[in-house]
């Protein structure tokens, strides 16, 4: 579309500029009638700055469609350099343009954080000269700013113009130490009941010691009774876990049989889209940085309404260097997290949260490739969901199931979890242990509850449970995020150990006041929490014990004294058979039921390794128990590599 195609607009030209040719057949509706007076005024201002009419016309129509300003669309388009644009505004205002700001000359005063969300003004201080006011002029207020400067000409000597991104960068830098201190301490100081900063809180340490000593004494004095009681407890939790997943499988089969699919929520296409923030925490991810940016570039959302923050540790110079050489689009921002313990993903996310401009927010991992339409689906779901639904979980799909038996079983596990178990929990209004990525939030309530716990190794599960106990709810959507699973035992074990350590932290945090937790979650939610978190931990820790006991009972029943163990032993034997082989079967069936034909083909026959998979899962659980004592806040980093072309 050419700017000069519309007679009413070609007349905006001033001076000696010649109007462009008008096409022979006029459009049904002149642009001057289709656009608001404010957009037309902004177009004329841009024309006076020397910007071409065809470009302005496109930006005006985009602004009308997206409910934004011409300026926002122009800067987001990448068709004009931000520094050149603000330099031109400075020239129109008759003030100095300052490309680079010295953050050391900015005081960290109240209100500074507002400039990382909406950069407008800063004060630069100097020890021997009066301070200078930095402004980010806006096109829609250009006339008022010019009028003020004409009324008080002396202001021109104390005002400079800087680009919006530079003001934002300087504000991040100036408040970095105070902000990281607040990030690490805010949840603990405001809601200590919800923070994992202290592993055993109050009486928990005492009760844990008493329980451990009691088990030790009883094991020495009454070994058979102790073994029997421990076995019964493990069996009950194991059985509860099995039944929950069996119910999820039943729901999945029912949906498959009756072709039940979540209805696509209706969307008002005339409504303007909100700003959508996207957070990605990166650490030592230079290898997948380019892949990540390509995936984020493909998101179906107006670029002027995107706020993408790549959150890096400030000493991760290699990842930052790669990102800086990529000529990132204007919607991207690199946020540097100051060095301070704990060095965890949730700390990085919480540090960046105050700077998020979006009403909605999505979290991804460095290796993720989200479906381009995922933001659209999440937005549509939020429009129709009640206000207390503040989180949506997208499913994670593993694309490298063919690489190894570990990745094949990982894919099977994720299919059952994200497309089977979590949808069942959401339908039943039960708490969801969120995945660590592809979470979509309403930003305001997420800030209200304190964001992520910097000290929890599974910030996702912790947040999902905390949301539920505070009266909020989570739901699921269907457009997936694609990931690769670990293919070696060493990498898999490190990742799974971190998860078990975080689940144990989450259980300890939630169980600081069990009676209060039951009141807040309701008895159904409280019971499911115990099954999903405590049951998973205990069944994983006790899996070798159950297998060994099953083997022992099988051996004794094959002897001459086959019935000497009694009825209790026999029923424990039957229950163990159901628990172990039933759990294996439901693990496989739930995963395969939720997979498509290609996914099932990729997994192939390697589901036979499920017993081995569960045994190394037990090893990770025991490793996590010891790590919780020795290094509770050490983050076992999972290395990532780019996807091979044609693999996904």
From TrEMBL:
Glycosyltransferase 2-like domain span: 363-557
Keyword Glycosyltransferase attached: yes
Record's bilayer topology term: Multi-pass membrane protein
Gene Ontology MF terms in the entry: glycosyltransferase activity
Main location: membrane
UniProt entry keywords in alphabetical sequence: Glycosyltransferase, Membrane, Transferase, Transmembrane, Transmembrane helix
Localization terms from the record: Membrane
GO cellular component terms, semicolon-separated: membrane
Regions crossing the membrane: 205-222, 228-253, 521-550, 570-591, 603-622
Listed InterPro entries: Glyco_trans_2-like (IPR001173), Glycosyltr_2/OpgH_subfam (IPR050321), Nucleotide-diphossugar_trans (IPR029044)
Pfam families for this protein: Glyco_trans_2_3 (PF13632)
Protein known as: Glycosyl transferase
Phylogenetic lineage: Bacteria, Pseudomonadati, Pseudomonadota, Alphaproteobacteria, Hyphomicrobiales
């Amino acid at each position: 579309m050419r700017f000069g195609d519309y007679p009413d607009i070609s007349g905006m030209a001033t001076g000696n500029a010649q109007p462009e040719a008008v096409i022979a057949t006029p459009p049904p509706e002149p642009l001057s009638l289709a656009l608001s007076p404010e957009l037309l005024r902004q177009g004329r201002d841009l024309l006076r700055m020397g910007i071409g009419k065809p470009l302005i016309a496109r930006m005006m129509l985009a602004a009308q469609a997206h409910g934004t300003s011409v300026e926002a669309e122009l800067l987001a388009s990448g068709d004009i350099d931000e520094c050149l644009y603000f330099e031109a505004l400075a020239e129109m205002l008759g003030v100095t343009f300052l490309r680079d700001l010295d953050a050391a000359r900015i005081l960290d005063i109240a209100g500074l954080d507002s400039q990382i969300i909406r950069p407008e003004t800063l004060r630069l201080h100097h020890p021997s000269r009066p301070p200078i006011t930095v402004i980010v002029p806006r096109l829609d207020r250009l006339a008022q700013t010019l009028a003020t400067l004409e009324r008080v000409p002396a202001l021109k000597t104390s005002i400079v113009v800087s680009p919006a991104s530079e003001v934002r960068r300087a504000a991040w830098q100036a408040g970095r130490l105070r902000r990281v201190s607040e990030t690490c301490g805010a949840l603990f100081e405001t809601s200590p009941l919800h923070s994992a900063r202290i592993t055993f809180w109050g009486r928990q340490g005492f009760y844990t010691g008493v329980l451990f000593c009691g088990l030790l004494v009883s094991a020495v004095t009454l070994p058979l009774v102790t073994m029997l009681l421990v076995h019964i407890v493990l069996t009950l939790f194991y059985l509860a876990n099995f039944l929950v997943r069996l119910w999820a499988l039943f729901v999945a089969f029912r949906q498959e049989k009756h072709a039940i699919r979540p209805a696509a929520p209706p969307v008002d296409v005339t409504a303007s889209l909100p700003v959508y923030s996207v957070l990605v925490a990166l650490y030592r991810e230079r290898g997948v940085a380019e892949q990540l940016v390509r995936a984020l570039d493909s998101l179906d959302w107006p670029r002027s309404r995107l706020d993408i923050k790549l959150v890096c540790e400030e000493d991760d110079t290699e990842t930052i260097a790669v990102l800086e050489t990529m000529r990132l689009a204007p919607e991207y921002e690199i946020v540097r997290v100051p060095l301070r313990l704990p060095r965890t993903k949730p700390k990085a996310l919480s540090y960046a949260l105050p700077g998020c401009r979006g009403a909605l927010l999505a979290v991804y991992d460095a290796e993720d490739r989200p479906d381009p339409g995922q933001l659209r689906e999440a937005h549509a779901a939020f429009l129709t969901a009640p206000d207390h639904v503040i989180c949506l979980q997208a499913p994670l799909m593993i694309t490298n199931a063919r690489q190894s038996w570990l990745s094949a079983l990982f894919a099977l596990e994720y299919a059952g979890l994200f497309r089977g178990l979590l949808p069942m929990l959401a339908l039943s209004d039960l708490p969801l242990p969120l995945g660590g990525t592809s979470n979509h939030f309403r930003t305001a309530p997420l800030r209200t509850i304190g964001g992520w716990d910097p000290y929890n190794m599974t910030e996702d599960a912790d947040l999902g449970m905390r949301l539920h106990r505070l009266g909020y709810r989570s739901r699921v959507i269907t457009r997936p995020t694609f990931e690769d699973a670990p293919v070696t035992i060493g990498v898999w074990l490190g990742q799974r150990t971190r998860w078990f350590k975080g689940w144990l932290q989450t259980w300890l945090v939630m169980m600081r006041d069990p009676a209060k937790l039951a009141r807040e979650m309701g008895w159904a939610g409280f019971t499911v929490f115990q099954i999903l978190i405590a049951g998973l931990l205990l069944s994983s820790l006790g899996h070798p014990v159950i297998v060994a006991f099953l083997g022992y009972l099988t051996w004794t029943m094959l002897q001459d004294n086959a019935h000497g163990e009694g009825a209790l032993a026999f029923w424990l034997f039957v229950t163990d058979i159901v628990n172990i082989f039933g759990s294996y079967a439901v693990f496989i069936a739930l995963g395969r039921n939720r997979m498509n034909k290609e996914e099932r083909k990729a997994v192939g026959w390697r589901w036979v390794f499920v017993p081995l998979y569960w045994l190394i899962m037990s090893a990770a659980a025991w490793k996590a128990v010891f790590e919780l004592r020795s290094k509770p806040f050490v983050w076992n980093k999972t290395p990532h590599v780019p996807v091979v072309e044609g693999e996904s």
